[in-house]
Design goal:
Shape: globular
Largest sheet: 5 strands, mixed
Order of helices and strands: HHHHHHHHEEEHEHEHEHEEH
Number of strands: 8
Radius of gyration: 25 Å
Helix content: 40-55%
Length: 380
């Protein structure tokens, strides 16, 4: 039995460390996935006030969970303080199994974010994985008092402390410099227009347009195929319409809802992605009206002007970025939904070098100083 427990410890420890490191490569990805859970729960009526409150702390929760995954994995491998860490592991795996089980059984998620975007797992696969991990951890829990440290206490504590420091450093580094390994559809070398297409052989979602009307104070819904027999403009007052999914597809395009519109509302997506010359896409999520990055951006702006490279500032929030819009009048400002901006730019702001829709390079906010020299080296 002792050998079996050791095998379980290795499996659990390695999986926790691996899972934590993959997530640490992109902590914002886990934060966005947590916000997705909070939004679904809020819409279902489960403590909506608390869900909206927790939404604002998603990144902090993400960093803490990732740190704990890595530290717990190291602790179980070295066998340090197993009576304590076996409890913590049990609580964590119950929490993870609940999330993956909900994602699988509800059918509202295509992935649970267990291994980030680099290793996308279906909710079913994630749930099965967590079931097996739960069994392993429960066995470890019952034999926790018999597990002895594999190393001297000082060495064990040093290793665990270093793992904590490394996990924190790694996350804060990528939050400024972009992920070490970019597994997102806006990664360097990808053609954005191609990523907006459905994968070959994929079956899209089947939807039906649903109309919502107010009838004498009561809300009624119906589709175009089952209009009420007594429908009349004097009785029914239009409220809204929405697409209701009646059958989930088996895939979706890697890049969704990437629609670029001018300030006057014209769709300019195809024109920008088809531009044969170099372009810089400056992605700004929400508001970025000040900060040290502006000093570096002034140099980028000058280098781009010297090379005749157009700059397009893409944001979901024009109102709060009005000071920037007024300052850089020669830059074309573009509106876009926040979801693709989150996918394209893991820092705000971030800059992509584009030519005919192909991403030639990309930089996080901490690496803006590298851009002028890159632009200067480009052939006109």
């Amino acid at each position: 039995m002792k050998s079996l427990i050791s095998v379980f410890r290795v499996i659990v420890g390695v999986l926790f460390i691996f899972s934590g490191l993959v997530k640490a490569n992109d902590p914002l990805g886990l934060a966005y996935k947590m916000q997705e859970f909070f939004e679904v729960w809020a819409q279902s009526g489960f403590l909506p006030g608390l869900m909206h409150f927790m939404d604002g702390f998603a990144l902090a929760f993400s960093i803490i969970i990732i740190c704990f995954e890595i530290v717990a994995g190291v602790a179980v491998l070295v066998g340090w303080r197993m009576p304590l860490f076996s409890w913590l592991l049990l609580i964590l795996i119950i929490f993870f199994t609940f999330l993956t089980g909900y994602a699988y059984l509800s059918g509202k998620f295509r992935s649970c974010g267990c291994f980030g975007d680099c290793i996308p797992l279906t909710p079913r696969a994630s749930f099965v994985k967590d079931i097996f991990l739960t069994i392993f951890i429960v066995i470890i829990f019952f034999y926790r008092n018999k597990i002895k440290p594999a190393l001297p206490i000082f060495i064990s504590v040093s290793i665990i402390t270093l793992s904590l420091i490394f996990s924190i450093w790694m996350q804060f580094h990528v939050l400024r410099h972009l992920p070490f390994v970019d597994c997102l559809p806006f990664q360097k070398g990808n053609n954005i227009a191609e990523k907006m297409k459905m994968p070959a052989g994929a079956i899209p979602d089947s939807t039906v347009i649903t109309f919502v009307y107010d009838k004498q104070g009561q809300t009624v819904e119906f589709t175009s195929e089952n209009f009420p027999d007594d429908f009349d403009d004097s009785l029914y007052h239009f409220v809204k319409r929405y697409d209701k999914i009646i059958r989930k597809g088996n895939a979706e395009p890697p890049v969704k809802d990437f629609v670029l519109t001018t300030l006057s509302g014209n769709d300019t997506t195809s024109a920008l992605l088809g531009n044969p010359g170099y372009s810089l896409f400056l992605f700004i999520k929400d508001a970025a009206s000040g900060g040290n990055w502006l000093q570096e951006f002034d140099k980028i702006h000058a280098a781009a002007a010297q090379k005749g490279i157009s700059i397009f500032a893409i944001s979901n929030n024009m109102e709060d970025n009005q000071p920037l819009l007024n300052k850089y009048t020669d830059i074309t400002w573009i509106k876009c939904d926040v979801v693709p901006i989150k996918t394209a730019a893991r820092t705000s702001p971030a800059i992509l070098l584009i030519r005919q829709g192909i991403i030639l390079d990309k930089w996080g906010i901490a690496d803006f100083n590298e851009i002028p020299s890159t632009l200067s080296a480009l052939n006109n």
